[in-house]
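To close the section, here is one more complete example, presented without commentary so you can practise reading it yourself. The ligand is NAI.
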Amino acid sequence: MEQAYDLIVIGGGPGGYEAALDAAGRGMKTALIEKNDIGGTCLNRGCIPTKIFLHAAEMLESSKKAGEYGISMTAAAVDMGALQDKKAELVGTLKDGISAQLKKAKVDVYCGTGCITAPGCVVLKDSGEEEKTLSAGNILIACGSVPAIPPIPGIDLPGVMSSDGLLDLRDGVPERLVIIGGGVIGMEFATAFSSFGSHVTVIEGMQRILPGLDKELSQSMKMLMKKRGVEIHTGALVKEIRRDGERGLICVFSEKEELCEAEADAVLVSVGRKPYTEGLFGEGFELETERGRIVTDSDGRTSVPGIFAIGDVTGGIMLAHAATAEGRNAVSVMLGEEPEIRSDIIPSCIYTSPEIASCGMTADEAKAAGINAVSQKYVMTANGKTVLSGGERGYIRVVAEAETGVILGAQMMCERATDMIAEFVTAISNRLTVSDMKKAVYPHPTFSEAIGELIRQI
Ligand code: FAD
Ligand code: NAI
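Output:
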């Protein structure tokens, strides 16, 4: 039976469900179709589960240092079964919260696969019931992404897995973990599993880990990872994975024109993610795509009027908060309003130890753009909270336009960097200047007072 909506959202991740809530809150009759679990990659296989693992790792690391602060305890260790139970409980709590919000906002939630057959027309499949056709003035595609799997011989051997598999590990910590791809997922898992007790080896194809980041950050992180005992090979390409009796899984890789081997009990493949559109388009229906990603303009419009796409499925920056911002802006456009959110200024956060966070331009990027910029660095060894809590040597850097003092960017590697970056996001999004930021009094003792000290030096 046909049912008319103002908006049908396909995909219940942070892009889709937040857009559905926003649209419903702004008076649109809204439907949301999700084929798996509400919360998408972020809640079920991404942001939240990894941060639960990293929180556990942080507790383990703290327990190792507890003796220095006069606290006696027996050696701590992780129980993966118990950690999985905790993960299920926490994810379940958050999922129930989202479902309750959707219900309260009167969003009709359908379980099944949304298949677009024509503009304004979505067929609900695989719902366990008869196929249903829904109609709407607008469709928002928020189908997300899945792990990219490179064509390496042996990639499908048991024990070789993507982040989805490693996040479901229940039977103990692998003694030896090889990570193919030293990007964001690679570094977060290297942090967690090196704390859990694995010997971690990272094999990265480019010349440095976290190649998308500012050079100083990635070099500093390489040093800290080595200090944690993580073995890092850069400019290294995996040729083959094979199983060799007692030795376990063997990753054969080339480094500086030499063939090397790394032994593993588990191999994580984290070489990027690809947009997901399986089953999304009905026969004969097309919209513009480019190497699997849905092409949109900066407001989320696809090549077909009335159909928008946001988040990972559009490629580009694949982050939960980017998907949410794009979704909210797309809803504004559907309502004929100007988008409110600066979705061009997206903070990037990596939950290593210490954390990494950045936003806006680096000094090199400002220079390349022909901007006369100044940059200043504050080393966190002078920050009381960092010293008292035994934090690693980290820093904060700010980049500002020389003539006007307008804040252009910030890069940080320190405790709580992922929370502190928000202050710079506000500054950059509102074109605040160094003088504007100097007016603020920062509480003491905090990590964030380092921002106040840094700003005073510029
Ligand atoms: P998704 O969250 O992927 O949701 C898409 C949903 O659509 C899925 O639930 C899927 O089942 C559903 N779907 C797909 N096709 C259909 C269809 N035809 N019909 C119905 N439903 C459909 N980002 C951060 O910002 N911070 C982090 O700390 C972070 N950590 C991460 C850690 C890992 C290990 C991974 C893998 C990712 C991480 N990300 C993180 C990235 C983040 O998870 C994604 O950027 C975000 O989830 C994208 O949101 P989305 O709404 O576009 O898609
Ligand atoms: P990524 O793009 O961050 O890193 C992939 C890495 O693999 C790159 O360094 C790349 O050079 C390398 N690589 C590619 N092919 C290779 C090969 N054949 N051999 C060796 N190395 C190879 O992608 P990743 O880590 O898989 O994460 C996917 C996305 O998930 C990220 O882009 C990010 O958007 C999101 N994410 C975000 C997090 C956060 O915000 N804290 C945490 C985890 C994931």
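Once you have examined the tokens, check your reading against these statements. Residues 150, 180-186, 188, 203-206, 211, 237-238, 270-273, 318-319, 349-351 surround NAI (ligand 2) (CB under 6 Å). The CA atoms of residues 220 and 413 lie 8 Å apart.
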